[in-house]
What does this fold into?
Amino acid sequence: MSEGTEARQFVLAARPQGAPKPSDFRLETVPMPQPRHGEALVRVIYLSIDPYMRGRISGMKSYTKGVDPGEVMVGGCVGQVVESHAPGLARGDFVEGALGWRSHAVAPGHMLRKLDPADAPISTAVGVLGMPGMTAYFALLDVGRPRAGDTVVISAASGAVGQVVGQIARIGGCRVVGIAGGPKKCAFVRELGFDAAVDYKASKDLAADLGAVCPNGVDIYFDNVGGDVQDAVMELINLKARIIICGTISNYNRLGQPDPGPRHSRRLLANRARMEGFLVFDYLHRYPEGRARVGAWIKEGRIKYREDVVEGLERAPEALIGVLEGRNFGKQLVRVSPDPTR
Amino acid sequence: MSEGTEARQFVLAARPQGAPKPSDFRLETVPMPQPRHGEALVRVIYLSIDPYMRGRISGMKSYTKGVDPGEVMVGGCVGQVVESHAPGLARGDFVEGALGWRSHAVAPGHMLRKLDPADAPISTAVGVLGMPGMTAYFALLDVGRPRAGDTVVISAASGAVGQVVGQIARIGGCRVVGIAGGPKKCAFVRELGFDAAVDYKASKDLAADLGAVCPNGVDIYFDNVGGDVQDAVMELINLKARIIICGTISNYNRLGQPDPGPRHSRRLLANRARMEGFLVFDYLHRYPEGRARVGAWIKEGRIKYREDVVEGLERAPEALIGVLEGRNFGKQLVRVSPDPTR
It folds into this structure.
């Protein structure tokens, strides 16, 4: 396989004001990078598109360094080794790594994780067995601490994280209610085994509609969105409820601007409830545990997943814009080059 | 000692709209209650006045039944037994119990806790060794989980709860910063050993003024007030910060009305911080532990406390109104009858 002499990559052209637009990203052609001692050249197959990327390009101080204009966009990738000078990696190996929005990338061997396509489809390494799946697993189990019989409500329920959260909660004997936008997404989460789904776009009174399918109140709210949806769920929380703050996507296009809402302190107090922020990178050391557990559930058919794949690196900006608007249906991926395992 | 044939009590006359006013309460004269088998008649010496009382008269659904118009106001009391038909209680014994806003009350023996005046001044049974002190002890240690070196910020720092929180945090090796209203209260908490105090009434930029005395950020925020003060502290929280929601007094006169503020989800997420509601009644079974610990610290001179005593049951409404406006200076008590131990 010849890779040619040029690679493509997206850099941040300008910090988006509000919702990103395609012109905030610039596709560049650069000379094919050359791996040196200890490094490998990887052809990217799948690029993962995730909501956190909006924060990285916002210029806001946050939990990690952002992307400045002129820098290559960050992102998790699955690819195939083209040339290796890294121990343990050979041409043809499939790997996962934080390679960014690129057609090809060079990385040190220790930054690449070798995948066995016999274990699971390679795309899952950035999905159900990657960052989103590990987010679901650790945030639900470690922060939420579900008990059989608990009612668990999940926003963005058909998304990369939400769909996995709900299935793990079901395995743990919980009643699971998903919040999603539109009848197709709601039907999908019901197919996954959720006990109920509420279409927030169709609802005129979300708290009432949720209340109707949460007759015993809400013990765990897995919050991927923040905003008005959070406010509605907060009206239903039980004594000792746990609210897992995993994402605030409703605000991602307005980061740093005021995000006024009702205060929830009184309700937290009266219910002795806990609202806690979660970031999966705190659990990197436990990924092997999470992958083993979720991987086993996939093999047993107890966890299913849905991917939303767009074709071609050039569509990455459009994919991110869509994710921020909730237009994706399942885990958003960009297929940057053909997947030889399929 | 003759108690006469009549007792006095305050009933709720009307649900307050906004801040309570004296006419929301009605002082009644009733026949002296008569204890039956298993009961004791108690002459009230101290009535405790606490912010939670505003919630009880609001008509809002909350963690416990409220006071309806016409019902006697609830409240913790210290008193002396006048007549006993209860096992283990004799005339002259000092007791603590939830007797309400009354000059005299009859209660079953098991609802009264006998006090030994040699252990501590009897007034402390509703203060530093009672509900407020136990709130400080369990909320700080169990929810806040302080570690030596942590920076702990406390609002309403000179109040019944706040003053104890700060001293326990100091014993645990924390840096302690109090927020209080006015120079006298700030001077008082510094005298108690707080490392710094910030006068929120004098501050033009509370987050900046707090930041100046919290050079390493805030690890624990013990929140008695909610509102704008909470918002300011939230700007300073550290990774894995704990925000203990113990009270929201800024909102008590507007319970049930909208309380808009900035949303804190994003900051909780980025800092993987935890915001958790606390109610001391969950810890009733551990009060003996808390009283033993705090009692020992008082005897060792490591915990001091300040009481604000007004004279006469007729002043109870005024005392509550003052507490809700922050006019009290230390634990608010009403002396309903003379304290024979002083």
Observations:
- Chain B has a mean pLDDT of 96.
- Residues 6-127+306-335 of chain B form a domain with the Quinone Oxidoreductase; Chain A, domain 1 fold (CATH 3.90.180.10).
- DSSP finds nine helices and 16 strands in chain B.
